[in-house]
Structure formats: C-alpha cells, structure tokens
Design goal:
Elements: E1 2-3, H1 6-16, E2 25-29, H2 36-46, E3 61-64, E4 70-74, H3 81-86, E5 98-102, E6 116-121, E7 128-134, H4 140-144
Parallel strand pairs: 2-5, 2-6, 4-5
Antiparallel strand pairs: 1-7, 3-4, 6-7
This protein binds adenosine-5'-triphosphate and magnesium ion.
Length: 152
C-alpha cells in the first residue's frame, strides 16, 4: 500500500484497528521519521482512544484507554531490548489489550510469532510504502481489514 501523507497513514491504521482483539501484538518497523508514531496515533483513534498519543521515547510503555487498552512501546532508546523483555516489559497485563511496538526489530527473537508486522518504507515528504505481514494465520484478519482504494 501507499500513503501520500501522515493523515493517510493514520486513516489506514484506524481502519486496521477494527480487526484488533485483546492480546494482539503489532510490530512497527521503519527508519527514523518513517511514520511509526503516526501509525500508532491512527491505530489508537480506531480503537477509540481519545487521549493524545505521543511518542513514548522517554518512557518504555504508555497505556491508553479505548475499546481495548492500547499499550504503546518505543524501543528506540532502549540499549538492550532483550533485557527489558526479561525484566517483564511484556507480561500478562498486555493480554487484555493491544500492544504496539516501535522499533520492534530490537526485540528480534523475543517478539512473539503471533503478531502483525507493519513495515513502513520512506521518510520525509515522500509517500510511504506500507507492507503488512501476519506472523500467524490468526493475524490475517488485519490483512482483510485493509480498505479498498487506489493505494492498496
Ligand atoms: N505518508 C506519511 N505517513 C506518515 N508520516 C508522514 C507521511 N508523510 C509525511 N509524514 C511525516 O513524517 C513524520 C513521521 O513521524 P513519526 O514520528 O510518526 O515517525 P517515527 O517512525 O515514529 O519516528 P521515530 O523513529 O523517531 O519514532 C511526521 O512528521 C509526518 O507528518
Ligand atoms: Mg516514533
């Protein structure tokens, strides 16, 4: 898919949120400024989160109330994501909501197979190419939730 601007990335993410179920994990991968936080904002809006979702760079995890709780994690400044994992960053609390993780590749092997990968290519004013990959068949429901349109 392609999105022309940040609003289009947010709109795509909001549409995908309709497919969300408790316990889901969404992995956001893309360079600095790719639009991972924009995607998280849109996803939260789609879940009915009314608080402003900000980049959680200086906290490991922020929690927002919506149709399902949204846990927003940013691993950019985390020196050792595996250590955070061992320290209980991901635990049973997230089972009640959706966990969306920026710089998820830093979790590497610690990420669950059951997840949606969102790969965002491009930065600056360029349109973004957004590729979705379901880690397990259960996550195919997100692929089915992609709106029809020219960017699909
Ligand atoms: N098609 C697009 N999709 C998303 N963002 C876009 C698009 N076009 C331009 N932008 C702009 O790119 C920037 C994306 O910033 P954002 O904070 O979401 O990136 P990020 O991937 O979270 O970066 P970081 O790695 O620093 O957390 C915003 O300023 C946004 O307005
Ligand atoms: Mg960000």
């Amino acid at each position: 898919m392609e999105t022309e601007d940040a609003a289009a990335t947010r709109a795509l993410a909001a549409a995908l949120a309709a497919a969300a179920r408790s316990g889901d994990t969404i992995s956001l991968v893309g360079e600095l400024g790719a639009g991972k936080t924009q995607f998280a904002k849109g996803f939260g809006a789609g879940l009915g989160v009314t608080d402003t979702i900000v980049s959680p760079s200086f906290v490991l995890m922020a929690e927002y109330a919506g149709r399902l709780p949204l846990f927003h994690i940013d691993l950019y400044r985390l020196a050792d994501a595996a250590e955070a994992m061992a320290g209980g960053l991901l635990d049973e609390r997230q089972g009640a909501g959706v966990t969306i993780i920026e710089w998820a590749e830093r979790f590497a092997d610690a990420m669950p197979d059951g997840r949606l990968d969102v790969l965002i290519e491009g930065a600056g004013d360029d349109p973004r190419r957004i590729v979705l990959r379901s880690g397990t068949p259960d996550y195919d429901r997100y692929l089915a939730a992609v709106p029809d349109g020219p960017g699909r």
